[in-house]
Amino acid sequence: MKFKSVPGRVVHKKIRKCGKIKIVVWFRFDSDGYAVIDESKVTASDLIKLKSKFEVVKEELSYQELQSKYTEKTGHSAVGMKKKDLIKELEG
């Protein structure tokens, strides 16, 4: 998932170890103001907090990526389909 904020911003996270709370650097926004987070390594509650605090940027997929996702989802080949039709099928 890709977030947008102030360039160079540092996001901290509280971690509990042995009954003590430790604050560590979680991630940092790059010089353009974007940060990419792996959703599989983030808990659901942390993801909700991140979505409420930062702007979520949708990533554009290439035509080949859309074709492969369509094939995985439906089991049919996506050869000859238009990009907007692939997007419509995947969202619906």
Task: Explain this structure.
The chain is an alpha+beta fold and 92 residues long. The chain folds into two domains: 2-57, no CATH class; 60-92. 34% of the residues lie in helices and 28% in strands. The chain has three helices and five strands; from the N terminus they run ββββαβαα. Strands 4-1-5 form a three-stranded antiparallel beta sheet, with helices on one face. A hairpin with a 2-residue loop joins β2 (10-17) and β3 (20-28). α2 crosses α3. The two termini are 20 Å apart. The mean pLDDT is 90.
Quick summary of this structure?
This protein has 92 residues and is α+β, with helices and mostly antiparallel strands.
Entry keywords:
single chain; 92 residues; three-stranded antiparallel beta sheet; two-stranded antiparallel sheet; elongated
Question: What is the fold's blueprint, element by element?
Answer:
Layout: E1 2-4, E2 10-17, E3 20-28, E4 34-36, H1 44-53, E5 55-57, H2 63-74, H3 83-91
Helix pairs in contact: 2-3
What separation lies between the terminal Cα atoms?
20 Å
Number of strands: 5
Largest sheet: 3 strands, antiparallel
Shape: elongated
Residue share in helix:
25-40%
Series of secondary-structure elements, N-terminal to C-terminal = EEEEHEHH
The structural class is alpha+beta
Radius of gyration: 18 Å
Query: Main sheet: which strands, in order across?
Result: 4-1-5
Please tally the helical runs, counting DSSP H or I stretches of 4 or more residues: 3
